[in-house]
Design brief:
By secondary structure, this protein is mostly helical. It is built from six helices and two strands, in the order H-H-H-H-E-E-H-H. It has a two-stranded antiparallel sheet with strand order 1-2. The termini are far apart.
Length: 149
């Protein structure tokens, strides 16, 4: 079986294309943030109690990647870092006013590219299943459409 014939190849390719599409929309809008940085920033803002491991699991990254992304967000001024009052071994991070401002500015662009990506989903599931990529969109993305909007 060729790689291109497996559903996993098409799922991975679809995810990568969507991420490239999303990053291009952020770049076109003039934002100095990556999709991964936005996901981490958003997770921290919504769940300030999360540990680095929790955030890594939520954004599908390893802990080292989340640590690097967090460092970049601190350097950009979107996050602040301080020693934990409960555990000296831990650092707490929080979204700064600048980070909140960025999130509010980015959200319309995120909503637009999500809408644009979801336009490719057929209105009725399992119609026109001509490729694994289309099948992935129908099985995975279409049911999540309500959650993404």
């Amino acid at each position: 079986m060729f790689l291109e014939q497996t559903i996993f190849y098409h799922i991975e390719r679809t995810i990568k294309r969507y991420r490239q599409f999303a990053q291009a929309r952020l770049n076109e809008a003039g934002f100095d943030i990556t999709v991964d940085q936005w996901l981490v920033l958003n997770s921290i803002q919504k769940h300030p109690e999360f540990s680095q491991a929790d955030i890594a699991q939520r954004v599908f990254k390893d802990q080292a990647s989340v640590a690097r992304i967090t460092d970049l967000l601190v350097k950009k001024g979107y996050l602040s870092r301080s020693a934990s009052t409960n555990d000296r071994r831990r650092n707490e991070v929080a979204v700064t006013a600048e980070g909140l401002s960025l999130m509010q500015a980015v959200m319309p662009t995120v909503e637009q590219y999500r809408q644009a990506a979801l336009k490719t989903c057929p209105p009725k599931p399992f119609t026109n299943c001509s490729s694994p990529s289309t099948l992935f969109l129908i099985i995975v993305i279409h049911p999540l459409k309500r959650l993404l909007l």
